[in-house]
Amino acid sequence: MTRHRIILNPAADRGAAANMQRPIEQAFQSRGLAFDLVLTERPGHAIELARSAAAEGCEAVIAAGGDGTANEVLNGLMQARQVGRGHPPMGVLCVGRGNDFAFGVGIPKELNAGCDAIAAGLTKKIDVGRVVEDDAEARYFGNGVGIGFDAVVGFVAARLKRLHGFPAYLVAALKTIFVYFKAPRVRVEYAGQSKDFMALMVSIMNGRRMGGGFMMAPNGDPGDGMLDLCIAAQVSRLGILALIPRFMNGTQATRPSISTGRADHVSVTAIQGTLPAHADGETLCEAGSKLTIEILPRQMEVFVPRFDSEPER
Length: 313
Hints:
By secondary structure, the protein is α+β, with helices and mostly antiparallel strands. It folds into two domains: 3-121, Probable inorganic polyphosphate/atp-NAD kinase, domain 1 (Rossmann fold), CATH 3.40.50.10330; 133-297, Tumour Suppressor Smad4 (Sandwich), CATH 2.60.200. Helices cover 28% and strands 35% of the residues. It contains eight helices and 15 strands. The chain starts with a strand and ends in a 10-residue tail after the last strand.
């Protein structure tokens, strides 16, 4: 039988994910799935655990947590792949906050539905993004990179102790209007273009959604070999407030302050000011100077429900 390595982050969803260990184990046992389950102990631990699982020959590696856990597992699997140490398919059990990567890929949020998808054994290949911040080590991402306002919203949301999921990000967005409203001047280069302007936010998406409910790329497809860009120019505080509901329903592209584009390679350079940035909600930098992002087509197999799988060839 296929051996599944489940990597559970007990700190996900403000610690509520710790209570999901037994339900996950019962769900796998009831489906006759051979597995072992390990718990993360610190930030970055899931990267190590996923990399080791691939090297040990595990036939599937499952991230149980939120977007941060999924991002770490994806990074561990990509690191193993790059050095020829195995490339098992990845599964996701949504027991954390946000779950934007799962949303974009088509993985169900409900635990039993997620386990059913893994038990069915159907996968599809998705693209993986790669981002380099200044001279730091490359980081992989499955959903997207946020630069500017978007990143600061994530930093603020992480400090909100009593709110979870999308409500935390919505409140954080409202708070951020008062702490991050002066955009840096940046140069954005993609698809043969170079734009130099005051940019409140640059979102570079492989998936569709960030923050649990903000549709940064409503038509994003993590299997099309392209990145979707959503760029917001400097606007007033009231202008930011007016944009929030647009991003919630995915209609922001109709506003004059928003520009969109598609490319397989993007660079963003700070000309005046600095770049706060995240990848899949994980902090890349709080004051970076340049980020280079590229898409790596069809790098990862992920478990999906039958209706969302690729057609048999």
